[in-house]
Write a structure and sequence with these properties.
Chromo domain-containing protein; alpha+beta; Chromo-like_dom_sf
């Protein structure tokens, strides 16, 4: 007994030894010692330095975890809308061309959330009506927090 635990341990040790021998034979078949002697001139693959371009590290490479300032999304025109407005979900202020501008996230009737769009107040069909409904609901949200 090699490991002192019986037949299972001996079998495992024998299997490991056989596997080592098998792997050695496979390695030896595909790997040979070089057939040149010390002092022989040999060729080896090289790459001309003239083909190498200089590497310039970008700001993104230097600081990979730095957050980028999000660019304000463009105002979507009414023609791009996808039907009548169901409700206004959110509001945000963005700076566009040096001026603060308020945009509203609009959900359209018979559409899912993935078709919601940010629109300027004047680009919302029946905007006054929907904004009157939206503003009181926002007041209620703030009072509950």
């Amino acid at each position: 007994m090699i490991c002192g635990r019986g037949l299972a341990c001996d079998t495992a040790a024998r299997c490991i030894a056989e596997e080592k021998e098998y792997n050695k034979q496979r390695w030896d078949k595909s790997h040979m010692e070089p057939d040149f002697k010390e002092g022989d001139q040999v060729k080896h693959p090289v790459f001309p330095v003239s083909f190498v371009k200089p590497y310039f590290q970008t700001e993104e490479d230097k600081f990979p975890y730095r957050r980028k300032n999000p660019t304000p999304s463009e105002i979507v025109e009414v023609e791009d809308s996808t039907g009548p407005v169901k409700k206004i979900i959110k509001a945000r202020k963005i700076r566009l061309n040096g001026k603060d501008q308020r945009q509203y996230l609009v959900r359209f009737k018979h559409q899912t959330a993935d078709t919601d769009k940010w629109l300027a107040e004047d680009a919302i069909p029946d905007g006054n009506l929907h904004l009157r409904r939206f503003t009181p609901s926002r007041r209620n949200e703030k009072s509950h927090h």
